[in-house]
Fold:
Amino acid sequence: MCGIVGYVGGRPALDVVVDGLARLEYRGYDSAGVAILAEGALTTAKRAGKLVNLREALAEEPPPAGTLGMGHTRWATHGAPNDRNAHPHVDCSGTVAVIHNGIIENFAALRSELEEAGHKLGSDTDTEAVAHLLEDELKAGGNLADAMRRVCRRLEGAFTLVAMHTGDPDLVVGARRNSPLVVGVGDGENFLASDVAAFIEHTRDAIELGQDQVVELRAGGVAVTDFEGRPAEVKEYHVDWDVSAAEKGGYDYFMLKEIAEQPRAVADTLLGRIGTDGRLTLDEMRISDQELREVDKIIIVACGTSYHAGLIAKYAIEHWAGLPCEVELASEFRYRDAILSPTTLVIAISQSGETMDALMAVRHAREQKAKLLGICNVNGSTLPRECDGVLYTHAGPEIAVASTKAFLTQLVAVYLIALYLAQVRGTKWGDEVFAMVQLLDGMPEKVDKVLETMEPVRELARSLAGERCVLFLGRHVGFPVALEGALKLKELAYMHAEGFAAGELKHGPIALIEEGLPVVVVVPPRARAVLHDKIVSNIQEIRARGARTIVIAEEGDASVEPYADTLISVPAVPTLLQPLVTTVPLQVFACELATAKGHDVDQPRNLAKSVTVE
Ligand code: AGP
Structure:
């Protein structure tokens, strides 16, 4: 989720661009850069770290004053966060500069083609290939916009691109596919940005670019076409948000925005990992197939919500890869005498990559000579550096302390690893892996569908704001979902909440059931009849004792209706993938209930986004 700013007009472009980047800092980033076109030349400056580092570089060596410029704050996906990989990236001649937000899936093939043609690429990024592609297309004729359209037709994946060329000294060009780009329409000046927060101090008139569109930005006007060059209808709108609301995309809280971003986050985490033949390609893990075939045990270590992702991973790994899998709280792991060996694969899951409990567990496993794989959302954080391999989630910066989109992308990552293990170890046939991968590829749409039906959940949450306690029940992968639902309510609404394996109820917890006590029950798909029927019995047991049953079940599951005081339906999906759709109502429920209690859901009391102490 990089930050992008472009400008053309009468003001000093450097000021407009750097101030715009400052407005986008909330998005989280690890490096920043600018490009200014002045006196017929392009000057770029870029630094790893925070914006202050870039400002220092610009103060030491101010670029020539120009009225055309663009800037970028990078959230690293391909290539470590350093000066070399920071944007903008330029072509061989230094006359084309480009900045990018997103993931270009076919960049490796494009990069090889460019290098074979003699281009010299110096960074590890997917973006740099675009600068060189533009260089070639400009030689083929037309202006920068023509070149951009031809290049975009060759790109696969999600991208927002903004570029400048010394041959078009009054033109900034933008393009987008599956990644946001908005135009700020001024008087004698125009802006481009990843979101309106970057320019609303200058103008509140904006144009949201549509899918597969290219925009030509000049001081005097804006022209929009599709990738084929056909003029596109544009709709101007007026932004009435204040800056704070703009940073949250119009939502009251980052958490709400991040819940809404989950379909995109899930899709981005799948990008580039499913080959055209349906086989998984996880080369980035840097652990060879042979090493994976030699693994005889997996231990997952994590904390909090990430631990719940690990619990779900266990079911997937055992079912698809046929490997024994333990899941351990990172803070407990090194105090037990875990049996580790060089053929043990320890998987550490951490959104931040800085959780000290997780890092200490990794260091303990390293001492025991285990193989280490990290699942992390922050490129360049500590965890990936201490593991043999890493699979990054692509949730983008998660600002709210309570983890939502990062959790769903962790599930995608563990599913990919479990299926990849099955693929390389042959525990599932190629067509079985392919079939499940196709279902996984369809999950963003299912998550989107859940988000569209959440109003009754919000009403329910508000009606329960006065409750003292809520219990959560689940079986199989629904049990970690119940734990996650309880954690969300604890950390946001400061209420007592507890998750149980539904089969455990009769061994004690059922004594907690009393008249009117809200109990959320996550019901497995009917396809798992043995699990499904048992949990329906559990619902009857608690209802008979006065519980208020809130049931989450797949659409069309009529068997639970007689016992559900509230029924929340989710799309029918395979058993192991069900947490991707059943978790979302619990996130919305906890967020809405906490909001009804007047809590700041982004910064809950006593909590930190990354717990960097043991
Ligand atoms: C999740 O909502 C919490 N904020 C917390 O439990 C978190 O999951 C835990 O601290 C682990 O953080 P990590 O994923 O960054 O390692």
About this structure: Residues 446 and 571 are 6 Å apart (CA to CA).
